[in-house]
Amino acid sequence: MGFSTPGLLPFIALAAIPIIIHILSRLRLRHAPFPSLILLRTVRRERFSWVRLKEILLLILRTLALASLLLALARPYLTRSIPGIGQATDIIIVIDDSYSTTYADRWENCLSAARKLIRSIGTDRKVILLTASGQIQQDKPVPRGPALALLDSLRPTSLAPKLDSVLKRASTIAESIKASVVVITDRQERSLSSNWHADPGVNITLLDIGSDTFNNAGISRLYPEDRFAAAGKPVRIKADIFNYGSREVTRTAALSLDGQKEEKVLKIPPRTRRTIIFASAVSKPGTYVGQLELRSDSLGTDDKRYIVVHLPEKTHILIVESASITGRYVSDALTADSAARFQVDLVKVKRFSRCDPRNYQVIVIMDPASLKASDWTRFGFYLSSGGAGLLMPGLVPANTSRIGPYIRSFGLVRPAGFVSTSEIDTTHPILERIKLTRLASARIWQYSRLDAKGNLVLARLSDHNPFILENLAHRLIIWAIAPTPEFSDFIYKAVFVPLLHRTVSYLAQISFRTEYIAGDTIRLQLDNSSALVVNTPKGRIRLEPTTRRGRPTVTLTNTSLPGIYTFKSETENKIFRTVAVNPLAEEGNLIRFSSDRLKSQGIQLYSGTLPESADFTVPLLYLAAAAFAAELLLLF
Predict the structure, then answer these.
(1) DSSP letters of 44-109?
(2) What is the pTM of this model?
(3) Vertex 269, ends 263 and 272: CA angle to 5°?
(4) Residue 88 has pLDDT above 50, yes or no
């Protein structure tokens, strides 16, 4: 039992006023003998008994009416505890505000559950509110009133945060203040990692506001048909649309690209992905902005996706060759015809120090063993400033400490006869269109044996040694051979040119990223220190550059809303970069994790209906009105 306005409880004493008046009036009565009334002693006393009973009833009704009215002002309620949460401690409420909770009425159920939970606790207990996205992060418990007000300001996000980090923080707070933790979520599959476990001694209860029944389709990808698109060749747009539900659906996909509009109607079987190709295409150099919308669907956030297609006129490549390893074969492959997308500068290693690396999207080092210490310093500065490189360590340097931060080589290997490619990662952008049979036709009779530790292996040789590696930390691709006849007949195979083109195009795109996931941090490196103005779906933001590793850099962290973000130079009013920010597609898959998994992770599932707190204010007002009405009946 509790009171929402306990400060008004003392006024209930005013209900004693009718009793006090009755007692005082009785004290004033005096008995006086009256001779003429002696003859009335024999009269029956029924009438006098009814008058006295009427007075008592009126006294009771007046007292009851006044007491009910005054008690109603204090707003009494009766709380019902939720099993597993406890009675004597404060409560920490963790709310899953990822965009999967906007499906149907899940978000309304989430807020309703939180309100019921806050109202169900006693007035002596306090609340801490935490959200998965971080839009609410309290450190200290607050009373119920402020907690409810803070809850009213909460909105679902377009983000797809996991519960792991916020539950870790909630557990830390719970241990320090001896509180219980309640998680309100729809139990979406990816919202909690399977390897997460509750800390011993921390009581965590999960309130489920979702359902195993759902019907949702979403756009999982929107991308150019040619991943490494270039000017001069028409580029069409492809889209992957996934039906996450358990029954077939029909949806309309509407694309808007550079003023062109196109619609396609498609049927998608349950648990199936469909890929569609639109006829709309772009071919001239420039940056194109597009949007795809999926109509008549249930979850709005994953029904819209944005795309920015950048068609460069030329990609600038610097090839550094040595006296031992020529770069002629690589240069010829990149400039096979006059319409080639690459502009190549071929220089000797001794002239590398005279080149400005910032003028190139990719630097190809044919013979890392020939670079001096100063050259490695320049190359490292270029990589840390956002550049990308392709290393072909045909020869092993005498001093391996220079190349050590990027790749470790164990020397040249000359197998008996030759080796070939036996395994490739076709999921990687470089190799997704390369057939293993074509790549395996190349014979390699000497190569550098590379250490795969800390690198992603994209292709292996038949003796299981790495052939192509990717160093994600430094934006590097490393080949185990130099493309010259001394190492392999690879340069004479038809697969050499497309593999080299895709490798260089992939590296160039790393430094010109056009798509981010909502919540990502966008960092752009500038050529000067001028401020940028960013047009976002929320409005305009001004960004001042900071010096980061020698180059001015702007950082944008507020990317919670999907859409197109355009960065303009404040002084020149010139567009510097346009990027698309999209929601994480996997969040649209509303398949839920099992209750058995929760138990193994140390979380108690509360699947019952949340108990409502019983508010006695209205019944007390009705009682007061009934008492006044009964009093009027007695009087008349």
Answers:
(1) --HHHHHHHHHHHHHHHHHHHHHHHHHHHHT-EEE--PPTTT-SSS-EEEEE--SGGGGSTTHHHH
(2) 0.76
(3) 90
(4) no
